[in-house]
Design goal:
Blueprint: E1 6-15, E2 18-28, E3 33-37, H1 44-51, E4 56-64, E5 67-68, H2 74-80, E6 82-85, H3 97-103, H4 115-121, H5 123-127, H6 138-150, E7 156-160, H7 168-183, E8 188-191, H8 195-201, E9 204-209, E10 212-218, H9 224-231
Parallel strand pairs: 3-8, 3-9, 6-7, 7-8
Antiparallel strand pairs: 1-2, 1-4, 4-5, 9-10
The chain binds adenosine-5'-triphosphate (ATP).
Length: about 230
């Protein structure tokens, strides 16, 4: 059996002395789309922050593609193949669309993704390649954040609330784009409040409460109502 592309095992993570994750465990298999769910403030983003050294990993382990992270330096997780599409997108405001994409190559990983393949996947980005990234619409900026992450040829894409702030019609387009990436075999960790997007994209889910998972399951075995109840929305 191949190693999971991402595995959290008993992760304890802190901001200073505040314990946020208290034994979080889950795994994302190759080609799988896994949703991490839960109400606001339970530690979903912190799980990503623990990978990139923003929250402090002080117990348990996180492995990317089989290699354990020490969790201290942001580029460590990126070099191993974890690519973040952050909440709020973090488009670099003084850079053009193309320059924002090139930033994504920093982990120096080889693979199918480069400017040409990203532009084939997101033709709008090609058309606007010389515009400042922040001049794009919200939906285009989200595509830019995804394209930038793909430029690192990741083993797993980490998507933090990708639908946030987008109009319903744009969320549908985002769903189409992520469904295409999933169909092409991209492994994903999806943090998302919109359960329609979760049921469309995710194979499995875990519900996080007070820093640990309280429920796990396969999306196809869970009714929409049961999922809403579990997440508490
Ligand atoms: N940089 C930080 N420093 C200190 N505390 C933080 C920091 N970021 C988040 N927290 C706290 O950690 C807890 C978990 O926050 P986190 O952002 O991980 O939650 P979340 O589940 O992602 O929720 P949301 O949907 O609101 O983003 C919250 O109590 C939050 O106030």
């Amino acid at each position: 059996m191949t190693a999971p592309v991402l595995a959290f095992d008993g992760v304890r993570a802190y901001y200073d002395d505040a314990l946020i994750l208290d034994g979080l465990s889950f795994e994302v298999a190759e080609g799988e789309s896994f949703a991490l769910l839960g109400p606001n403030g339970v530690g979903k983003t912190t799980s990503l922050n623990a990978m990139f050294g923003i929250a402090h990993l002080r117990g348990g382990s996180i492995t990317v593609d089989g290699a354990p992270l020490r969790g201290r330096r942001p580029h460590e997780a990126a070099r191993r193949g974890a690519a973040l599409v952050p909440q709020g997108r973090w488009i670099l405001p003084t850079l053009t669309v193309e320059e924002n994409l090139v930033v994504g190559t920093a982990p120096r990983r080889r693979g199918p993704w480069d400017l040409a393949s990203v532009y084939r996947t997101f033709p709008d980005l090609k058309e606007r390649r010389d515009s400042l990234g922040t001049q794009l619409s919200g939906g285009q900026q989200q595509m830019l954040a995804i394209g930038r992450a793909l430029m690192s040829n990741p083993r797993v894409l980490l998507l933090d609330e990708p639908s946030e702030g987008l109009a319903p019609v744009v969320i549908d387009l985002l769903g189409d784009c992520l469904a295409d990436l999933k169909a092409a075999g991209t492994s994903m960790l999806l943090i998302e409040q919109r359960l329609d997007l979760v049921t469309r994209l995710a194979d499995r889910y875990a519900v996080l409460l007070k820093g640990e998972t309280v429920a796990e399951g396969r999306v196809e075995d869970t009714s929409d109502e049961a999922l809403r109840d579990l997440v508490g929305v």
